[in-house]
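Module 6 notes. Inverse folding takes a fixed backbone as the condition and produces residue identities as the prediction. Think of it as a translation problem where the source language is geometry and the target language is the twenty amino acids. Below is one complete input and output pair. Work through it position by position during the lab.
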């Protein structure tokens, strides 16, 4: 092969490679930040997508109404479903979105969410308390409530149990449809859109260079205080046992002090808000429909509980 042909082939290869690289989609730039606000308690954490999701109190209302409807539906099949009597959720929506943030809570509760600690004398690993009560269904009772076989996941819609056909999605599905009555038809995945977008923005924020830098500053601060943690989730997610110890309180106190001195949570929140705003612009119409669905479910849930 002549030198000229080799040169032509080389130039052609370089051109094709450059074209292929140039055709690849470039990653979106990191969004610009708005105001960086002071955060001293979880109540200071407010995000744009909050307007599309229930508050803890509203969430309890919807869940309790759904449970009541499931119980009534199951009674048609002669089942007394033992659903939890109450729903245990934090009183503040973003109680631990970024981990612990409040100095007073750290000094008295360590990493625990106030009101959700383990009872005195309890043993075993847990930093939170689950809903009270329990449910240990038979195979048929599971089908009635969930609408599927518990082992295979196969739909059992229409299957007769105690001479009554199982509704689509079981009693849980029927209850969800009842909560949505009177509103526009909204696909189940659309109802979960706000929380999915919020979760996606949270993940994106953690990878953002400004948050990564803040993590580094916090880690350096903790090291000066005598603690070796590479990121703020490590002490927050650590299994501290069932009872608060002096070691946990000391660590949590240093953690909050470093968060405040490095402005970790303020930067983290500002970055997350920026990513949420971007998602809201991209999904404006679907979010409007999701909000309509949420407001309908909340209104119906209040009526259901009032008439219980």
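Target side of the pair, the amino acids:
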């Amino acid at each position: 092969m002549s030198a000229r042909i080799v040169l032509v082939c080389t130039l052609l290869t370089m051109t094709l490679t450059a074209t292929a690289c140039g055709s690849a989609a470039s990653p979106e730039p990191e969004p610009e930040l708005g105001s960086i606000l002071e955060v001293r308690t979880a109540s200071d954490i407010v995000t744009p997508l909050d307007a599309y999701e229930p508050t803890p109190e509203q969430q309890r209302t919807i869940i309790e109404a759904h449970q009541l409807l499931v119980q009534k539906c199951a009674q048609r099949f002669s089942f007394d479903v033992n659903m939890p009597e109450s729903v245990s959720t934090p009183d503040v929506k973003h109680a631990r979105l970024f981990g612990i943030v409040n100095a007073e809570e750290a000094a008295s509760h360590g990493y625990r969410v106030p009101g959700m600690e383990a009872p005195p004398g309890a043993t075993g690993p847990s930093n939170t308390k689950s809903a009270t009560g329990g449910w240990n269904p038979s195979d048929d009772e599971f089908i009635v409530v969930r609408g599927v076989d518990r082992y295979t996941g196969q739909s059992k819609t229409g299957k007769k149990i105690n001479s009554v056909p199982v509704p689509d999605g079981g009693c849980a599905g029927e209850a969800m449809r009842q909560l949505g009555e009177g509103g526009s038809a909204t696909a189940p995945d659309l109802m979960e859109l706000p929380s999915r977008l919020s979760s996606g923005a949270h993940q994106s924020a953690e990878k953002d260079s400004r948050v990564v830098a803040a993590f580094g500053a916090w880690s350096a601060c903790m090291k000066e205080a005598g603690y070796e943690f590479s990121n703020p989730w490590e002490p927050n997610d650590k299994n501290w046992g069932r009872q608060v110890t002096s070691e946990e309180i000391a660590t949590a106190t240093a953690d909050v002090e470093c968060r405040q001195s490095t402005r970790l949570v303020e930067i983290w929140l500002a970055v997350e808000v920026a990513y949420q705003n971007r998602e809201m612009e991209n999904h404006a119409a679907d979010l409007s429909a999701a909000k309509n669905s949420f407001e309908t479910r909340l209104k119906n849930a209040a009526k259901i509980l009032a008439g219980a």
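Reference fact for the lab report: Residues 1-23, 119-132 have pLDDT under 50 and may be disordered.
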